[in-house]
Each structure stands twice: as structure tokens, then as C-alpha cells.
Amino acid sequence: MPAPRIMDPYKDKSSHYHHRRHLDFQSVEELPDAYEWGPLESHGGPVGADQGVPIVDLKGPNARELIGSACKSWGAFQVINHGVPQRFLEEVESAGRRLFSLPLHQKLKAARAPDGVTGYGPARISSFFPKLLWSEGFTIFGSPEDHARQLWPQDYQNFCEIIEEYDRDMKRLAGRLMWLVLGSLGIAKDDVEWAGPTGDFNDTCSAALQLNSYPKCPNPGRAMGLAAHTDSTLLTILYQNNTTGLQVHRDGLGWVMVPPVPGALVVNIGDLLHILSNGLYPSVLHRAVVNRTHHRLSVAYLFGPPQSVRISPLERLVDPDHPALYRPISWTEYLSTKAKHFNKALSSVRLCGPPVDRTVSSIVEVGS
């Protein structure tokens, strides 16, 4: 898979932090100044179960319609009965815990290179903010074997087998979810040429896995696990363990927690699907907050189109009364735009209408 070329625009961003001293989160008793964001804007108060991010049963008869409604109003939803066994999700979580519980000096053997995009290191969006993020990550394209050998020279195969099986499961699920989302817009398989000969996206699209660790934090009210952003994907499928932390932003409600549901997976609409749907299904602004007493782990499957395809609003969604709002752009080109403009990237590729700025100003005014 030639995915590293897709992420080339982020190489400079990744190397920006390479020279900084890595923090051993397990030994910290007080929040260092470099990680202190100041008081965080809290979520918008209690939200009832029937008012939060929808939970969709993929075996339900109206799954497509419910997903369409969730995409339009939230840009995110959770799915159950998705076909990935709970026991395997727990194996994936265990593999992630095994990785992040290693001593820092051991994890640094698989550190992301200054000009690289895979391996252990801080979130790639870190360089957009003056304060550091209370998290650590591990990025995987294709096989994780090279980095796994560095972490466990004599015992790397189990980790690789779990990750590779999870990647296959997520690829199948991503294709299924894409057609549920597109079907809710009235899009047929003939409308998407790059879906591949079988129409399931499996042989055409690109993807990456991102393992995220959010250690226990001595002052979670003034630290940020992952700052507010939208994903530069079509879809992101997220597994989160049983510790809360993921929040999505919705106008009128502010920050809303997405509570872990046993066996459920969270699906986020990314910027490229925002473009593909001509803005009908907006990408969701989200962030991760941290916890004083519990370690949180998540695994994100970042699903995007083929490298050679230029994404633009689907023809079926464009007419004289609904002009195309965005110019055609490839995933590689969009990542370059995102690496430059961050949450204003959608505005920079918009053709008409009001600009799209997915920034919540109060969360980037560090130290306010």
C-alpha cells in the first residue's frame, strides 16, 4: 500500500516536534507548564440519551435512514451489530495497552522518524498549537512489522496478527458504512466509479490505523488530550475503551460527550465526505479530554479514497439550484491544504457561499 505518500504533507509537521523531549507520562505528578492549556470550555451540560450522538443498529430495518439523519444533524454516530466481535475489540485494546505500557525508552525505539509518518510519537496536529497535548500515538500504514520488531524483538508476531486482522475487519466495515451513508443521499453504485469493480471500495481505497493513548492526568481540567479538529478522511471508525473522553461539537449544545457503549464503534464524517456530499453531511469537529483516574485508549481507522481520485460533489447532488460548493481535490492535495490551513482547509477549497471555518475560537486561545 503506497499510503506513506499520502501522508507526505505531514512530514514537516511531524518533524517539528521530533527534537522536543518526550514526556514519560507515567512518572509525572504535576502538570508541566508546556501542557497547561488553561481552563477548558466545558461541554454544554447534561444531554439525554435520546439527545446525544445517535446509536444505530446496523441490523435494524431503518439503519440507512437513521445514519442519514445522524450524518446531517451530528456528523457522527455510533454503530452496534457491526460484525466485529466484542472479544476481538478487547484483544485490540489489550494490544494497544501492551504497546503504551512499555517503558518510554522502549517505545522510542519505534519512534516516528523526523521525515516519517509511521511509528510512535505525538499527534500530527500538535504543531498547530502552542501548548502540548496530553497523549501519545502510534501510526500504522500497512503491516506494523518493522516497528513491532523494534518494540518486541522476540515477540512481535501476535501484535502484528491482531492489527492486520483489525485492519481487514475495518476495511470491510468501512465499505459497508460508505454505502449506507451514500445510499441515504440517494447515491447508487453506478454514481461512484472509484468504488472498484465489486463496488465495495476494498481494492481501491487507502487507510491508516492510529492508536491513541490518553494517560491519567494530574490536572485534567487544564490539559487537552487531542485538540479540536475535523478528520481529513471520508470516514473515521473509532473504537474507544470504557473511559469517556471523546467529545463532538454541535451548534446550540456546545461540546457533547460521546459515551462508550460496550461493543459499539463511533463513526465520524470526515472533510472529504463533506465535500463529496456537497456539504449536506458536514464533517464533525471533535476533541478528546483527559481523566484524572483512568487511562483512555482509542483506535481510529482513517478511511480515504484512492490516491489518484479527485473528490468533488457527486453529480447527482448538483443542479442549477444546488451548485457544486467545492472544487475537485485529491486526498494527497487536501492533506497538503490541511497541513497548511488546518481547520480552515474546507474554506480554502470552497467555490461559493459562506466560508467554512470549523474552529471553535475559545479552545485555541491557550491560557485564557
TrEMBL record:
<dbReference type="InterPro" id="IPR044861">
    <property type="entry name" value="IPNS-like_FE2OG_OXY"/>
</dbReference>
<keyword id="KW-0408">Iron</keyword>
<keyword id="KW-0479">Metal-binding</keyword>
<feature type="domain" description="Fe2OG dioxygenase">
    <location>
        <begin position="205"/>
        <end position="305"/>
    </location>
</feature>
<comment type="pathway">
    <text>Hormone biosynthesis.</text>
</comment>
<dbReference type="InterPro" id="IPR027443">
    <property type="entry name" value="IPNS-like_sf"/>
</dbReference>
<comment type="similarity">
    <text>Belongs to the iron/ascorbate-dependent oxidoreductase family. GA3OX subfamily.</text>
</comment>
<dbReference type="GO" id="GO:0009686">
    <property type="term" value="P:gibberellin biosynthetic process"/>
</dbReference>
<comment type="pathway">
    <text>Plant hormone biosynthesis; gibberellin biosynthesis.</text>
</comment>
<dbReference type="InterPro" id="IPR026992">
    <property type="entry name" value="DIOX_N"/>
</dbReference>
<dbReference type="InterPro" id="IPR005123">
    <property type="entry name" value="Oxoglu/Fe-dep_dioxygenase_dom"/>
</dbReference>
<dbReference type="Pfam" id="PF14226">
    <property type="entry name" value="DIOX_N"/>
</dbReference>
<keyword id="KW-0560">Oxidoreductase</keyword>
<protein>
    <recommendedName>
        <fullName>gibberellin 3beta-dioxygenase</fullName>
        <ecNumber>1.14.11.15</ecNumber>
    </recommendedName>
</protein>
<dbReference type="GO" id="GO:0016707">
    <property type="term" value="F:gibberellin 3-beta-dioxygenase activity"/>
</dbReference>
<dbReference type="InterPro" id="IPR050231">
    <property type="entry name" value="Iron_ascorbate_oxido_reductase"/>
</dbReference>
<keyword id="KW-0223">Dioxygenase</keyword>
<dbReference type="GO" id="GO:0046872">
    <property type="term" value="F:metal ion binding"/>
</dbReference>
<dbReference type="Pfam" id="PF03171">
    <property type="entry name" value="2OG-FeII_Oxy"/>
</dbReference>
